[in-house]
Amino acid sequence: MQFVIDEDLLIEQLKSESDKDEAFRHLITLYKERLYWHIRNIVKSHDDTDDVLQNTFIKIYKNIHNFKGESKLFSWMYRIATNESITFLNKNAKRLQTTNEEIQQLAINNLTSDVYFEGDTIQLKLQKAIATLPEKQQLVFNMKYFQDLKFKDMAEILETSEGALKASYHIATKKIEAYLTKD
């Protein structure tokens, strides 16, 4: 049975002091898994993903009154999750006095020992290929390939044009293909 979401009603309840907590629990139920995998594709580690997901929901809860309805609620939450993930990576890189690329590589190297990673050697090689991409191409590739988001939705989330995203995705797939087919 497909559960239909009346987004306007949910937003109204989220902004209502009397309904906010119950509506927020419902929101978490609806979006927790999708946001988890979006974040996981960026930060790689299960434990780090849980931390970023928690921070994302805290930010959503605290800032729902600022949601203007200019985009879908889903897009607004994905934007927060994306920004929280990038902030997390930047903080880690700064704390470890290294680059985001090196943080990504370390995370991928740790995937083999991550009990929550169920991928095989091909999945691991794909993750390594994705890690070689610039940040924006990684985001676009992950959102399209793993979550099958429409370019229109990604344009709202990343606040850019569909054409730019299509070009980024095309370039990213070519780079990944080249990485996967070399020796």
TrEMBL record:
Keyword terms of this UniProt record: Sigma factor, Transcription, Transcription regulation
Domain RNA polymerase sigma-70 region: 27-94
Annotated InterPro entries: RNA_pol_sigma-70-like, RNA_pol_sigma-70_dom, RNA_pol_sigma70_r2, RNA_pol_sigma70_r4_t2, RNA_pol_sigma_r2, RNA_pol_sigma_r3/r4-like, WH-like_DNA-bd_sf
Domain of life per record: Bacteria
Gene3D superfamilies: 1.10.1740.10, Winged helix-like DNA-binding domain superfamily/Winged helix DNA-binding domain (1.10.10.10)
Domain RNA polymerase sigma factor 70 region 4 type: residue ranges: 124-172
GO MF term list: DNA binding; sigma factor activity
Biological process according to GO: DNA-templated transcription initiation
Family: Belongs to the sigma-70 factor family. ECF subfamily.
Protein's name according to its UniProt entry: RNA polymerase sigma factor
